[in-house]
Amino acid sequence: MISMESPRFYPGSVTFTALATIRRERRLPLPGKVRVRRGETVEATTVLATAEQPMGVVIVDLARPLRVPPERALAYLRRKPGTSVRAQEVLAARRTLLGLRTLRVRSPVDGEVVAAGGGRVIIRTGARTLEVRAGFPGVVVEVIPQYGAILEATGALIQAFWSSGSDFSGVLRVVTSGAEPLRARVLDPMVQGTIVVGGGWIEPSALEQAERLQVRGMIAGSVEVSLLPRLRELSFPVILTEGFGRLPMHPGIFRIFSLYQGREAFILHPPADPDGTPGRPEIVIPVPTENPPPPEPTGEVVLQPGLHVRLLREPHRGRTGTVLRVLPDPQVLESGLRMWCAEIRLDGEERPVRVPVYNVEVLRS
Questions:
Q1: Could you tell me which of 360, 365, 250 has the C-alpha nearest to residue 17?
Q2: Are 153 and 284 in contact (CB under 8 A)?
Q3: Is pTM, for the whole model, over 0.90?
Q4: What's residue 270's pLDDT?
Q5: What is the CA radius of gyration of the chain?
Q6: In the predicted model, is pLDDT for residue 187 greater than 90?
Q7: CATH assignment of 307-363, given 2.30.30.30, 2.60.120.10, 2.40.110.10, 2.40.110.20?
């Protein structure tokens, strides 16, 4: 008799840990020059690598105005690849028979000659300097030639759900308890210049009060999706750890923020995955230690009994619980669909619920 094993499932995961050894790759999107060395200690603002990104190119024909075949045109080139050129500067020149006349080709733009061939030259018309900064204080443990470096630090790491801004940093100030909504009344002038942390969802009044008080940023569990346009208009970034709606912050995440209140936090935005999926915003809170703590959990996780998970769809969206078992056969749901499912005991409840395996994410702490 042939035994059929259930398939293995690899759900997404979210990491939050109060103390770990954190390594992050910080790199340019195109080749450039690395500015740091292995073993070097860097600050968040340290430039790790730079590159020149072309803004545009112009192709200039040489053969036709010089009245020669394309394969002969480069013999008359005066500005070789790698040299700069000014608008109206002579790129190539050829004297006609008896030297009575000189045919010239002038550059139509300022730029740099980057290539020549086939009777033509290519001029790069401008460039902007790209740079990648460390983003958080740490040590360079590996240099990525031409692109950047891998940094290491010790401290807390929290992977969030969504962010409205780019990389930034600031001192943490917890202003609510547990799952309490973030309202205007809990924000006083002491929050100016800090990253405000609330354990629940954000009320509209809190956004306006935070704007008036000039906070550095805001972190909360969630916010109503109807407020998205307003979030993008604010002068400060907003980080959500859970999602959209009225979802409280996970208690484990809130405990980390409470533990490190008053410390500086650094918010990073990893590049998108190869399939275009945006990376999760990450919050790094550096904590110096005498002995290096264990590395953060990485790699894929197989869905199995004992894992702590969060549910992603209604009717239990945002709830957390423990996997009791992965059911051996596809189950028929109320919708009539047959799907692979797991039995999960929700936190605070005894009776397990049956949830499709694609509707969970693993919480790693």
A1: 365
A2: yes
A3: no
A4: 86
A5: 29
A6: yes
A7: 2.30.30.30
